[in-house]
Backbone:
């Protein structure tokens, strides 16, 4: 499959490298043309890997991933162009973390809105699916880093979009039985609001190789 | 131990009944004197169970539990009286859920504040500890309702207060190894912000007998 990734940070590169290893063709998109991070990644990653702009990555992908920071995601997809994303699935893996000078971390948006919902409102012709934002990027593409069964969660308004994302996640190694559908894109806010808890757990454990396993009576 | 419970709802009564069963003496406190719910509970629960006001419950307890809704918790502890809570541990199990007419659930406070932090600021001479707000009240007092190992989380500024709460939770049946200390009372916001996710999971499973098990690599 042809996949576009919006964002050249650690998350975008980690996802891109895994997708290329799985045989997908990937364009890693940066804000400005000729970005060094995207070019370096593509050069390291072989013939299936291409650098591009946000718009080039969006136009390239049959499925597109938002791997920018959640606080700039809306601006990034505007640069990517709604026309380049129309009819496609947009997998949003971002969290809207705001880091204060004192080290405090908050979310914006939060509580009555989310990045996932904002992207869906901005892109009514795109199937926005929230997923993967609840784990570190190394765990995203290698769930075996965490022992035992543990879960991912998807949220989105479009069943086909969610099915496409679930299929991709199973390629990453996530058993379909461990991917829980939490409902419409408005459930994205509940997934984004896990981040403060996740950050506390990371501090507690001293690493990011952990995930949630939901224990249930029946 | 003498325990005061502020709040006569399902959570307060469930905790009170368990505490009495464990041999503790409990005053279940209501906003107004002569409250029927508190009187009925005490009559059903035997000689270790007493009804009272918020202030009487606070004055009675060596340890006090806030089991009111998080949106009214601050007003409830003001009625309980800072002088009745001074030097004591206050276990805050509440969540600040706001239910809109459309069925949407949000939190207030959220993100940069929490009920736990508000209570601690209002009661500087009290050891406020956040715990138990991440599970249904039936699971709070009977962790075996959920199979396997699963976790609780405590947050508070005072180590002695947290130790007292952990001791009480082990009496409820929670293994000490499954109670994670997430830090100061400011970690309460991360625990309260789990509620939207918890509500989505409850909708997904169709019941509340579930909990988080954190899987970790090391």
Residues:
């Amino acid at each position: 499959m042809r996949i576009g990734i919006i964002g050249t940070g650690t998350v975008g590169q980690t996802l891109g490298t895994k997708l290329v290893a799985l045989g997908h063709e990937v364009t890693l998109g940066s804000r400005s043309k000729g970005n060094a991070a995207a070019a370096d990644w593509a050069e390291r990653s072989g013939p299936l890997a291409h650098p591009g702009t946000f718009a080039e990555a969006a136009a390239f992908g049959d499925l597109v991933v938002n791997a920018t920071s959640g606080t700039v995601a809306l601006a990034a997809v505007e640069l990517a162009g709604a026309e380049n994303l129309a009819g496609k699935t947009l997998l949003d893996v971002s969290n809207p973390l705001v880091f204060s000078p004192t080290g405090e971390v908050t979310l914006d948006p939060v509580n009555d809105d989310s990045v996932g919902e904002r992207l869906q409102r901005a892109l009514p012709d795109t199937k926005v699916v929230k997923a993967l934002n609840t784990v570190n990027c190394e765990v995203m593409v290698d769930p075996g880093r965490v022992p035992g069964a543990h879960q991912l969660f998807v949220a989105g308004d479009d069943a086909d979009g969610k099915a496409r994302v679930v299929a991709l996640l199973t390629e990453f190694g996530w058993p379909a039985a461990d991917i829980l559908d939490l409902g419409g894109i408005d459930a994205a806010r509940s997934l984004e609001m896990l981040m403060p808890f996740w950050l506390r757990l990371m501090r507690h454990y001293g690493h990011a190789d952990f995930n949630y396993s939901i224990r249930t009576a029946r």
The two ends of chain A are 37 Å apart (CA to CA). The longest strand of chain A covers residues 210-216. The domain at 2-205 of chain A is CATH 3.40.50.720 (Rossmann fold). DSSP finds ten helices and eleven strands in chain A.
